[in-house]
Design brief:
The complex is a heterotrimer. By secondary structure, chain B is mostly helical. Chain B is about 70% helix and about 0% strand. The N and C termini of chain C lie far apart (about 60 Å). In chain C, about 85% of the residues lie in helices and about 0% in strands. The chains are: A mainly alpha, B mainly alpha, C mainly alpha.
Chain lengths: ~120, ~325, ~110
């Protein structure tokens, strides 16, 4: 495990760890809002992976600079995808939270065990 | 030096995520999620994604926290214990998948390798041709609005559907008892300092939102970030002055008009392009000079995106805020 | 000559700002109760903001970046203490334990 390989892949390892932390919250926690929080962490981990893929060594943000000699820019394409994904993420999150609010009003609780017993 | 800072930030992200999952108080989890989003935004900025960092800071650290807090107000603040028996299965699954994912990254290219396959095919085309075809420097806005305009149209529709869905779910009548009658909302009337400072800040937030909207082509910015910033300005106004005053300033009908107007504007630009002889969303037929025509088309659709996102986020917030909390059944 | 002095002054201000953030952070962890912790963190709101941004402005010279830094500093100085006030007010109204050594007569008169 050379230092070069470690530094070059650390972002992806952090992505894997964050992904699984969020996934653990979704499957192992009983509270519905905690599950949604875990889903939000899951989404952010995916964004981290895409943006890590787009980085080019020695590059800058992909905004063209006039008069620069032989510039290096980072890849703009994953950034566009993630821009869309962030807003879609907050849209689905708000829809999920609205459903949780209605479940709470109907059943009086947002714990998975109590909801399964009540139904 | 940046490497050390980046490593430190990534470790801090993992620590924050662990703290979020472990805490039993949902309010603490929401605040930590806001910190997590801000750390993620700084990380994006270090990885040269300026537009994405701005969006994550405005939407993730701002609007998501407000929506979570509104939902917490309507449900409970504490989490009761989780299912103890299935926890070991979950841990085993999670650890196995982590090991598999990490082993899957063994032979991938290093971070920042310019010869990685992701940088080879389409991206150089966008970087070389944006100046010639569009005439403005921000490549991300060019790709988002013009080269990949269909995806952005679909996203505006997703935001529209989410706002309408939340309106369906949360604007339904709650009941006919006396506790559901319209109370006078005081807002934060006894808190002078936040109201004074907020009143000073809101015009500047709106000005900054407009700046970000119209400078999306020359620097980081664009419709999504601007919509989120303007929506947070109005949400701050609603929190400080109360629901009733805020709805007088910006009624539900006006919010709906913004959402519908934004989406229709985007689609209308596409249809006008078809009527003028090009294909759907081919802006170059709008005027004689195709470069200017593309710039005009992009400005109009970014305006549509900003309107739709602002109206949707504001409408979602007001749907949550207008709901009366119901006592928990013990 | 004067450029070297300005650069050194900027570096000194940056170090002072970083030290204030560190001291504020240590104070937040080590202080006994909520109100003294907020008092420690307010060091970050004011002293660190002033020192760090002044240092950055000295490093930037007379460019557009200095005006932007001044705007950001004004914004942070305006909103940071407001957030601390709102937090302290919310804590007071929720009845978080106050330290015994405070003279509580004035507070009981003006309590809501």
């Amino acid at each position: 495990m050379t230092l070069d390989a470690f530094l070059g892949h650390f972002n992806y390892w952090v992505f894997a760890i964050l992904l699984m932390i969020g996934f653990y919250a979704v499957i192992a926690k009983g509270n519905l809002i905690k599950k949604l929080v875990g889903l939000s962490i899951f989404q952010s981990a995916v964004f981290l992976m895409y943006i890590s893929m787009s980085k080019v060594e020695g590059g800058t943000a992909p905004i063209l600079q006039a008069g620069a000699v032989d510039p290096i820019y980072s890849n703009p394409l994953p950034q566009v995808l993630i821009l869309t994904a962030i807003v879609v993420g907050v849209a689905t999150l708000s829809l999920g939270l609205a459903i949780v609010v209605r479940i709470n009003e109907r059943y009086g609780s947002i714990e998975e065990r109590e909801l399964l017993d009540a139904d | 030096m940046t490497i050390v800072f980046a490593l430190f930030l990534l470790t801090l992200l993992v620590v924050t995520a662990l703290a979020i999952v472990r805490t039993k108080n949902l309010f603490i989890a929401t605040m930590l999620l806001s910190i997590f989003s801000l750390l993620m935004a700084v990380n994006f900025f270090i990885l040269d994604a300026a537009d994405v960092a701005l969006t994550e800071a405005a939407v993730g650290a701002g609007v998501t926290t407000v929506i979570f807090l509104s939902a917490l107000r309507l449900t409970s603040q504490y989490e009761r214990g989780s299912l103890a028996s299935s926890r070991w299965i979950a841990v085993i699954v999670v650890v196995t998948t982590t090991v598999l994912l990490i082993s899957g990254t063994i032979n991938t290219p290093n971070l920042g390798d310019p010869n990685a396959p992701v940088h080879q095919h389409v991206a150089p085309f966008y970087l070389e041709n944006t100046e010639a075809l569009m005439g403005f420097p921000n490549v991300v806005t060019a790709v988002l609005s013009s080269f990949r305009g269909y995806d952005t149209l679909g996203e505006v529709f997703v935001v529209f559907i989410a706002a309408v869905g939340v309106m369906f779910i949360l604007d339904a009548r709650q009941g006919t008892g006396p506790e559901y009658e319209l109370r006078v909302e005081k807002g934060l009337k006894h808190h002078l300092i936040p109201r004074a400072v907020g009143g000073l800040l809101i015009p500047f937030m709106l000005l900054f939102g407009l700046y970000v909207q119209f400078h999306g082509e020359y620097g980081p910015g664009g419709g999504f970030q601007a919509g989120a910033i303007v929506a947070t300005a109005f949400i701050l106004h609603a929190i400080l002055e109360g629901e009733r005053t805020a709805l007088k300033a910006f009624s539900r009908n006006a919010q709906m008009a913004l959402i519908i107007g934004g989406s229709t504007l985007y689609g209308a630009v596409g249809v006008v392009c078809m009527l003028k002889g090009g294909t759907f969303l081919d802006y170059s037929v709008l005027m004689e000079d195709p470069v200017t025509a593309r710039q005009v088309g992009i400005i109009i659709i970014e305006l549509g995106v900003g309107m739709a996102v602002c109206g949707a986020l504001l409408s979602i917030f007001h749907s949550f805020a207008a709901r009366k909390p119901v006592a928990q059944a013990k | 000559m004067i450029e070297v002095a300005i650069e050194w002054l900027g570096n000194a201000l940056l170090i002072v700002g970083a030290a204030s953030v560190l001291i504020g952070g240590i104070g937040v962890i080590r202080m006994p109760d909520l109100y003294s912790r907020m008092h420690a963190s307010s060091l970050t709101d004011t002293m660190a903001t002033l020192a760090l941004f002044s240092g950055l402005m000295l490093h930037s010279g007379f460019t557009l970046a200095t005006i932007k830094l001044m705007a950001i500093m004004a914004f942070l100085l305006l909103t940071g203490p407001t957030a601390t006030y709102a937090l302290a007010n919310a804590a007071f109204r929720s009845g978080i334990e106050q330290p015994r050594s405070l003279n509580t007569d004035d507070q009981e008169k003006s309590a809501p």
